[in-house]
Design a protein that fits this description.
Elements lengths: L2 H19 L10 E8 L7 E8 L4 E6 L17 E8 L2 E3 L1 E3 L6 E6 L6 E8 L12 E2 L2 E4 L7 E2 L7 E8 L6 E4 L3 E5 L2 E4 L2 E2 H5 L3 E4 L1 E10 L2 E9 L9 H18 L7 E7 L6 E4 L3 E6 L7 H6 L2 H8 L7 E3 L16 H4 L1 H13 L5 H16 L9 H6 L11 H4 L6 H17 L6 H9 L10 E3 L1 H11 L4 H10 L14 E6 L4 H10 L1 E4 L5 E4 L4 E4 L4 H4 L7 E5 L2 E2 L3 H10 L6 E7 L2 E7 L7 E6 L6 H6 L6
Parallel strand pairs: 1-12, 19-20, 20-22, 23-24
Antiparallel strand pairs: 1-2, 2-8, 3-7, 3-11, 4-5, 4-8, 6-7, 9-10, 10-17, 12-15, 12-16, 13-17, 14-15, 18-19, 21-22, 25-33, 26-27, 27-28, 29-30, 29-31, 31-32
Helix pairs in contact: 5-7, 7-11, 12-13
Length: 631
């Protein structure tokens, strides 16, 4: 079958639905069916050609491009990368006008008896200011998020728009993976079964020349798969021990939640140093992207061990159960994100914990990660006037900020949310004398009911409080008010009641050292109050620190330490140790083309956070860390 006949057959298959679904209903209540074809032949060049066909009623029509995307918590649909928009009917071009207020909406006047509407546009790969669009393709792989290539009639519900999707891959020998169900394939041309717009956007597709698929087992009859794509065959030469750890992750999730809410599940994983990383949750898949060496370098796997665990956990926390005001009817309605400390905070907690339980990290590495997380929050000047709840409510303006991020706070509902749920877990352990835990809350609330396909059940803050009380009676409203809704210059410390204390030592933990090496960063946060990249570029400064008080700010660059050219972390730590005798730490800085030397009056030596066991106390963290299922 030729490619032209292949796609013609798809349009004919869709047209019976097209002709009855849109033509006789008012736009605000209408259902529509759209035949969507994406030509990814030139994806490596950064171009996706899109052709859509749809039947619509005559008169004013509004086409919309997805704006608020689930899991992004911001109106960042990449509309700046939409080009070459053309609308026609019966071979006749129709004019369109972008809405002057909502730039994601396009108005078209459809004449009577016009026939099906054809919409063509190009999606341009590459970065756009304020939008994450650089993740598209390398010479050997494609990562497609369908929201980038859909322009559909406005409907009050994205579930009222049916899409008949198809794609032309860059080459017939490219393999692909997606949660979509395939209808047919002819060489590089692939067609999928009709699906709602809501579910299409929830089902990304990865493709590439170097691909390996691993069976992750079944969950009450539902198959799970790890689909990997890489720039080179060597990057997917994964040993059986690594694969076994990911299978164990599935086992740990099964033991935690018991019930599933997917018919099948695909871990999509792109391995490349040529595209930004990714971690985005979906009902029946997760879109994961990491460095090319993640599966073949033990250090890379350790550093990224929680990636798949975090996104998989969202199948329950975030997709199956979702805050009522976050679960919007379509992609144009703004989300209210005030419960992200549950959606992301508890998932951050379980992503880290389940990775440890599965053997992707050791218990000590998990403890070291907790120490680093808490210590940073405890040394964050912005928390003196900005409560945790505001980081969630204002999530859309906090993503990706780095300069002065400790002063204005970032997406702390992840990390401080994790600490809040750790605190709750420790409290439940202690109040119940070890008979109950946060696992019981998660199982009852997020694993509730029975096995289902992809559905969403909403909740409120009161539902969370009720779920906690059902497992362990306590004043959970006050607990959350104090930690989430009130100012706390220092976050509540969960460690003492868990048998540990936070200490600072002159050398970093092995895990912190590994992470810093992977990030190519320099850490002076708990001494001078500086975080910098390996070349000395200052990323952030604490205003309540020697560096902050000396007028040092982000964007400046450390050229030398104690009159010696900067060479790395060991040199900085040596200078900090030398300053313990009373001499200042001298930094040669360059900024705005001007060099200046700053003498910092600091004499406390290097300081790195770690957890230390309190003798003769119960090891609650050790109890929390125990696997729920045997490997």
């Amino acid at each position: 079958m030729s490619a032209d006949r292949f796609f013609a057959s798809l349009i004919l298959t869709a047209f019976p639905m097209l002709l009855v679904s849109g033509g006789t209903q008012a736009q605000t209540v209408a259902s529509y069916t759209v035949s969507l074809h994406v030509d990814a032949s030139h994806a490596v060049q950064g171009l996706l050609r899109v052709h859509e066909t749809m039947s619509v009623p005559p008169g004013p029509l509004t086409l919309v491009y997805p704006k608020w995307l689930p899991g992004e918590f911001a109106p960042n649909g990449p509309i700046p990368n939409v080009a070459d928009l053309a609308v026609s009917a019966g071979g006749k071009a129709l004019g369109w006008q972008r809405d002057p207020v909502d730039l994601y909406a396009f108005h078209v006047d459809v004449p009577p008896h016009a026939g099906p509407l054809d919409v063509n546009f190009t999606f341009l790969g590459g970065p756009a200011p304020g939008f994450d669009t650089a993740r598209l393709a390398t010479p050997n792989m494609l990562s497609l998020e369908w929201n980038k290539v859909t322009l559909t009639p406005f409907s009050q519900s994205s579930r009222n728009v049916t899409i008949v999707p198809s794609i032309r891959l860059p080459s017939p020998d490219w393999k692909f993976a997606t949660a979509l169900e395939m209808a047919m394939q002819h060489g590089a041309d692939v067609a999928f079964k009709p699906i709602t717009l809501n579910a299409l956007v929830d089902s990304p597709l990865d493709a590439g020349t170097n691909a390996r698929t691993f069976a992750m087992g079944t969950w009450d009859g539902a198959p799970l798969t790890l689909a990997t794509f890489a720039d080179t065959p060597e990057e997917i030469a994964v040993d059986h021990k690594t694969v076994a750890k990911f299978r164990n992750l599935v086992a740990q999730m099964h033991a935690l939640y018991r019930n599933r809410h997917f018919n099948h599940y695909t871990f999509l994983l792109t391995l490349t140093d040529q595209m930004p990383g990714e971690g985005l949750e979906h009902h029946q898949s997760s879109d994961n992207g990491s460095s090319g060496d993640m599966l073949t370098d033990p250090a890379a796997l350790t550093a990224n061990a929680d990636l798949l665990a975090h996104e998989f956990n969202h199948s329950w926390d975030g997709k199956y159960r979702r805050a009522a005001d976050n679960a919007t009817p379509n992609f144009q309605v703004p989300e209210i994100d005030d419960l992200l400390w549950v959606y992301e905070g508890m998932t951050q907690f379980y992503g880290e914990l389940q990775a440890e339980r599965a053997g992707l990290r050791t218990e000590q590495q998990w403890l070291d990660g907790l120490a680093s997380t808490y210590a940073y929050l405890d040394h964050e000047p912005g928390r003196t006037d900005d409560p945790l709840i505001d980081t969630a409510v204002a999530s859309s303006i906090r993503r990706g900020i780095r300069p002065w991020s400790a002063e204005r706070r970032s997406q702390d509902y992840y990390t401080e949310g994790e600490m809040t749920w750790l605190d709750a877990d420790v409290l439940i352990h202690n109040l119940s004398h070890g008979t109950r835990s946060l696992d019981d809350v998660a199982r009852a609330f997020f694993g509730a009911g029975h096995d289902t396909g992809p559905i969403t059940v909403t909740y409120t803050r009161d539902d969370i409080i009720a779920a906690l009380n059902a497992v362990q009676p306590y004043d959970w409203k006050r607990f959350l008010d104090e930690r989430v809704y009130s100012l706390a210059p220092h976050p509540p410390n969960p460690f003492a009641q868990a048998g540990y204390r936070l200490v600072f030592r002159a050398t970093p933990s092995a895990f912190a050292h590994l992470v810093a090496g992977r990030r190519k960063s320099l850490d002076m946060w708990y001494s001078l109050g500086i975080n910098a990249t390996k070349d000395g570029t200052i990323v952030d400064v604490s205003t309540d620190s020697p560096a902050g008080r000396a007028g040092i700010g982000p964007g400046m660059k450390i050229a030398a330490v104690d009159d010696r050219e900067l060479t790395g972390q060991e040199q900085i730590d040596a200078a900090l140790r030398s300053a313990e005798s009373g001499a200042p730490v001298r930094l040669l800085l360059v900024g705005g083309g001007v060099y200046r030397t700053v003498a910092l009056d600091y004499h406390g030596g290097p300081r790195y956070p770690q957890l230390e066991r309190i003798p003769a106390t119960q090891d609650v963290l050790g109890a929390i860390a125990k696997p729920l299922a045997a490997p």
